């Protein structure tokens, strides 16, 4: 793992988008406070019929799939041995870390009695029959693993930083309240030495942690599908199938690759960096294979269970099913052409179609296809939505700030060099 | 690229085959034993007079222990009546009237069905929902519950209710007066106070016999069906009625417990934790092998990427 292949993005932190995102985040967190004071009913439209609303459906079930970029990239780099994608992995891991960390945070907002969550660590309370138990432990473990995977970026910075900002602040402070400079410098040196000591040791074992970071999502992403296996009377037969775990697993993989493409395009556009077309078209080549398998499992399973006529009946459920199906199929179809895979515009469009379609699949399973019986209705309340918006805003905000203070994005001159050498090799 | 795509395909196909076989296995072994010695209730809708004495008694007896409270109607600012419209976070049992016409109507009582293979117990991640194998009581422990509401998603009868309006909420459902009336008097409060004999309390086997006797001796009076006898693998709360059960808000359900299906799949994937460990081991082997190949170049900051491009 060469740390030299990443660089900080040198730009101002306090931009207009920073302010907008900060305001949205603060509104969201204010509503979270309200939820803890007045109860979940005060901010949400959830009911005893629809006990899981937009928080579980989007922030947890869909948000973690969208955060699977790190998972998908790790499979590609370390298992399928495509080391030239390695420069893309750190930003993918950063977004995964935010996605999973904030999914965990939303769960703590969503559950009614979060102070009892310590029971997950008490073996006598373990309940291995519960898919939720598996998801909870796995997600907690994976969030930790992601943090460790990201640690090298922090250690490198700690080791090399000169603490200029901190020094400036100390110099600016009134001498009476400013800390003793000598002692502080000693402590900073100690942190530096610690980071320098830890980094090579971490590098040695990191591969085992990375592989753990591939195993855990494989487990809990499929279990996110298993969660709805029990709702056999409530989930519409278009979606209730024994294949739910498999479908959720493949779903998170193609969402993962697609989101890696989207993230790269958007951040290159926003940060005015050259597009990583070559890498992206390579990623895009994998996606139609995954979606192809997924779509055939869906159709084959529907045929096997005799539900194909229901899928084509054009009622409420059928329309959402067809929408999900067509979005994914259309996105994959676009990616079959190698010409379109070379175009950033088409890459963006098809990846967006697949992410939206794949996310809609998860919405269909958790909310739209879920019918607890007569008389129950659910549409998220404004406050409920704003909490989700606040959490997403915080995610983007954090990403924006962190790429500007830590070496996360691929190093530019290295990449250009690589492209040059590659072309030379091809010519030769 | 072609080669690796095929590898990817094979990998996913293998996973698919594994799950396919589990699906088949779960369909074949669907029998489970029913315990007829568990505590049980039989509600006879044709005997019920709708006096709601059971509702009042339940709230009086379980109010403090079960965190129940009175629910006001909009027309009653003084709070003279307890007027729940449905089972809620304040109400464990409820009488409803279903009127099809002036001639055809029926009362129905809602409360926990105390399933023999309860979904809520199967899904609870921290074992806050438990089923006593002797008494068959499905009980809730607020001291371990994290409030994830998976029990609500899982329950086919929509029985567990959540206290949406409280800062410190809990799940509310009938526990057969386990810590209150049953402990003191050996009978549930609702069955004790029923003046019309609509609620019988006893062992499941005895109540099933009693229900069958009523069906035999009153031809034409009842629907020939004991609701709860076989639904979702059998429940301890049994119903007799003259009206279609689904018209009374009791859903039409299969005889197999939904938990059998989901547990079978979950158990097959995670049997002995072998699959995850094997997966981790295999992936480690592949990854370490890959890393070894690139070992020396690692320090050179990947100047060699072009070589791996076509690998």
From TrEMBL, chain A:
<dbReference type="GO" id="GO:0033748">
    <property type="term" value="F:hydrogenase (acceptor) activity"/>
</dbReference>
<keyword id="KW-0812">Transmembrane</keyword>
<feature type="transmembrane region" description="Helical">
    <location>
        <begin position="243"/>
        <end position="271"/>
    </location>
</feature>
<feature type="transmembrane region" description="Helical">
    <location>
        <begin position="316"/>
        <end position="336"/>
    </location>
</feature>
<dbReference type="InterPro" id="IPR005614">
    <property type="entry name" value="NrfD-like"/>
</dbReference>
<feature type="transmembrane region" description="Helical">
    <location>
        <begin position="131"/>
        <end position="155"/>
    </location>
</feature>
<feature type="transmembrane region" description="Helical">
    <location>
        <begin position="283"/>
        <end position="304"/>
    </location>
</feature>
<dbReference type="Pfam" id="PF03916">
    <property type="entry name" value="NrfD"/>
</dbReference>
<feature type="transmembrane region" description="Helical">
    <location>
        <begin position="381"/>
        <end position="402"/>
    </location>
</feature>
<feature type="transmembrane region" description="Helical">
    <location>
        <begin position="12"/>
        <end position="34"/>
    </location>
</feature>
<dbReference type="InterPro" id="IPR051817">
    <property type="entry name" value="FDH_cytochrome_b556_subunit"/>
</dbReference>
<feature type="transmembrane region" description="Helical">
    <location>
        <begin position="91"/>
        <end position="111"/>
    </location>
</feature>
<keyword id="KW-1003">Cell membrane</keyword>
<keyword id="KW-0560">Oxidoreductase</keyword>
<feature type="transmembrane region" description="Helical">
    <location>
        <begin position="205"/>
        <end position="231"/>
    </location>
</feature>
<keyword id="KW-0472">Membrane</keyword>
<keyword id="KW-1133">Transmembrane helix</keyword>
<feature type="transmembrane region" description="Helical">
    <location>
        <begin position="343"/>
        <end position="361"/>
    </location>
</feature>
<protein>
    <submittedName>
        <fullName>Ni/Fe-hydrogenase cytochrome b subunit</fullName>
        <ecNumber>1.12.99.6</ecNumber>
    </submittedName>
</protein>
<dbReference type="GO" id="GO:0009061">
    <property type="term" value="P:anaerobic respiration"/>
</dbReference>
<comment type="similarity">
    <text>Belongs to the NrfD family.</text>
</comment>
<dbReference type="GO" id="GO:0005886">
    <property type="term" value="C:plasma membrane"/>
</dbReference>
TrEMBL record, chain B:
<feature type="binding site">
    <location>
        <position position="112"/>
    </location>
    <ligand>
        <name>[4Fe-4S] cluster 3</name>
    </ligand>
</feature>
<dbReference type="InterPro" id="IPR006311">
    <property type="entry name" value="TAT_signal"/>
</dbReference>
<dbReference type="InterPro" id="IPR014603">
    <property type="entry name" value="Formate_DH_Fe-S_su"/>
</dbReference>
<dbReference type="GO" id="GO:0033748">
    <property type="term" value="F:hydrogenase (acceptor) activity"/>
</dbReference>
<keyword id="KW-0560">Oxidoreductase</keyword>
<feature type="binding site">
    <location>
        <position position="194"/>
    </location>
    <ligand>
        <name>[4Fe-4S] cluster 1</name>
    </ligand>
</feature>
<dbReference type="GO" id="GO:0015944">
    <property type="term" value="P:formate oxidation"/>
</dbReference>
<feature type="binding site">
    <location>
        <position position="190"/>
    </location>
    <ligand>
        <name>[4Fe-4S] cluster 2</name>
    </ligand>
</feature>
<dbReference type="GO" id="GO:0051539">
    <property type="term" value="F:4 iron, 4 sulfur cluster binding"/>
</dbReference>
<feature type="binding site">
    <location>
        <position position="58"/>
    </location>
    <ligand>
        <name>[4Fe-4S] cluster 2</name>
    </ligand>
</feature>
<feature type="binding site">
    <location>
        <position position="177"/>
    </location>
    <ligand>
        <name>[4Fe-4S] cluster 2</name>
    </ligand>
</feature>
<feature type="binding site">
    <location>
        <position position="148"/>
    </location>
    <ligand>
        <name>[4Fe-4S] cluster 4</name>
    </ligand>
</feature>
<feature type="domain" description="4Fe-4S ferredoxin-type">
    <location>
        <begin position="103"/>
        <end position="134"/>
    </location>
</feature>
<keyword id="KW-0408">Iron</keyword>
<feature type="binding site">
    <location>
        <position position="51"/>
    </location>
    <ligand>
        <name>[4Fe-4S] cluster 1</name>
    </ligand>
</feature>
<feature type="binding site">
    <location>
        <position position="145"/>
    </location>
    <ligand>
        <name>[4Fe-4S] cluster 4</name>
    </ligand>
</feature>
<dbReference type="InterPro" id="IPR019546">
    <property type="entry name" value="TAT_signal_bac_arc"/>
</dbReference>
<feature type="binding site">
    <location>
        <position position="155"/>
    </location>
    <ligand>
        <name>[4Fe-4S] cluster 3</name>
    </ligand>
</feature>
<keyword id="KW-0411">Iron-sulfur</keyword>
<feature type="binding site">
    <location>
        <position position="174"/>
    </location>
    <ligand>
        <name>[4Fe-4S] cluster 2</name>
    </ligand>
</feature>
<keyword id="KW-0004">4Fe-4S</keyword>
<feature type="binding site">
    <location>
        <position position="54"/>
    </location>
    <ligand>
        <name>[4Fe-4S] cluster 1</name>
    </ligand>
</feature>
């Amino acid at each position: 793992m060469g740390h030299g292949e990443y660089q900080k993005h040198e730009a101002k932190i306090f931009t207009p988008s920073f302010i907008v995102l900060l305001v949205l985040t603060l509104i969201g967190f204010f509503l979270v406070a309200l939820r803890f004071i007045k109860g979940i009913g005060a901010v949400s439209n959830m009911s005893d019929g629809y006990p899981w609303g937009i928080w579980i459906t989007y922030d947890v079930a869909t948000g973690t799939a969208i955060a699977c970029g790190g998972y998908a990239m790790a499979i590609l780099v370390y298992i399928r041995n495509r080391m030239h994608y390695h420069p893309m992995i750190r930003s993918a891991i950063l977004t995964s870390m935010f996605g999973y960390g904030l999914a965990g945070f939303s769960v703590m907002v969503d559950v009614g009695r979060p102070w009892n969550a310590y029971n997950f660590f008490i073996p006598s309370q373990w309940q291995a029959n519960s898919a939720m138990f598996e998801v909870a432990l796995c997600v907690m473990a994976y969030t930790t693993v992601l943090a460790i995977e990201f640690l090298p970026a922090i250690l490198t910075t700690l080791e090399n930083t000169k603490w200029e900002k901190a020094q400036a602040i100390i110099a600016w402070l009134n001498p009476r309240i400013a800390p003793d400079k000598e002692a502080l410098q000693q402590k900073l040196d100690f942190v530096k030495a610690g980071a320098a000591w830890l980094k090579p040791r971490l590098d040695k074992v990191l591969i085992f942690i990375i592989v753990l970071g591939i195993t855990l999502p494989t487990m809990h992403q499929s279990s996110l599908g298993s969660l709805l296996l029990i709702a056999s009377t409530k989930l519409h037969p278009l979606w209730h199938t024994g294949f739910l775990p498999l479908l959720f697993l493949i779903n998170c993989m193609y969402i993962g690759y697609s989101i890696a493409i989207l993230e790269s395009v958007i951040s290159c556009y926003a940060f005015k960096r050259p597009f990583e077309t070559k890498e992206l078209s390579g990623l895009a080549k994998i996606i139609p294979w995954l979606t192809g398998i997924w779509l055939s499992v869906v159709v084959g399973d529907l045929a096997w269970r005799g539900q194909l006529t229901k899928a084509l009946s054009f009622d409420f459920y059928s329309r959402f099913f067809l929408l999900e199906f067509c979005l994914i199929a259309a996105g994959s179809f676009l990616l079959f052409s190698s010409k379109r895979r070379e175009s950033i515009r088409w890459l963006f469009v098809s990846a967006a179609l697949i992410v939206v379609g794949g996310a809609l699949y998860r919405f269909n399973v958790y909310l739209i296809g879920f019918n607890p019986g007569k008389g129950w209705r659910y549409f998220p309340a404004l406050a409920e939505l704003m909490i989700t918006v606040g959490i997403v805003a915080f995610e983007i905000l954090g990403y924006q700030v962190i790429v500007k203070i830590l070496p996360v994005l691929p190093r530019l001159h290295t990449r250009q060099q690589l492209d040059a050498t590659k072309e030379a090799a091809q010519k030769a | 690229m072609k080669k690796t795509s095929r590898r990817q395909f094979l990998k996913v196909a293998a996973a698919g085959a594994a799950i396919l076989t589990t699906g088949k296995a779960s369909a074949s072994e669907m029998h489970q034993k029913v315990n007829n010695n568990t505590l049980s209730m039989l509600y006879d809708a044709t005997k019920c007079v709708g006096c709601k004495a059971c509702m009042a008694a339940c709230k009086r007896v379980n109010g403090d222990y079960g965190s129940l409270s009175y629910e006001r109607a909009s027309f009653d600012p003084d709070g003279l009546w307890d007027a729940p419209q449905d089972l809620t976070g304040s109400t464990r049992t409820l009488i409803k009237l279903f009127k099809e016409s002036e001639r055809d109507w029926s009362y129905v009582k809602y409360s926990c069905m105390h399933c023999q293979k309860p979904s809520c117990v199967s899904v609870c991640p921290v074992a806050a929902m438990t089923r006593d194998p002797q008494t068959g009581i499905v009980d809730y422990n607020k001291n371990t519950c994290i409030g994830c509401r998976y029990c609500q998603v899982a329950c086919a009868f929509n029985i567990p209710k959540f206290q949406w309006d409280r800062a410190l909420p809990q799940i509310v459902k009938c526990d057969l007066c386990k810590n209150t009336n049953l402990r003191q008097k050996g009978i549930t409060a609702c069955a004790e106070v029923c003046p019309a004999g609509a609620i019988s309390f006893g062992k499941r086997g005895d109540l099933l016999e009693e229900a069958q006797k009523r069906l035999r001796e009153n031809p034409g009076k009842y629907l020939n069906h004991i609701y709860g006898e076989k639904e979702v693998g059998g429940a301890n709360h049994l119903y007799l009625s003259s009206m279609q059960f689904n018209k009374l808000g009791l859903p039409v359900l299969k005889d197999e417990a939904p938990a059998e299906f989901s547990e079978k799949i979950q158990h097959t994937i995670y049997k002995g934790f072998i699959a995850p460990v094997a997966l981790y081991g295999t992936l480690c082997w592949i990854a370490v092998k890959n890393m070894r190949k690139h070992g020396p170049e690692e320090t050179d900051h990947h100047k060699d990427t072009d070589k791996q491009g076509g690998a």
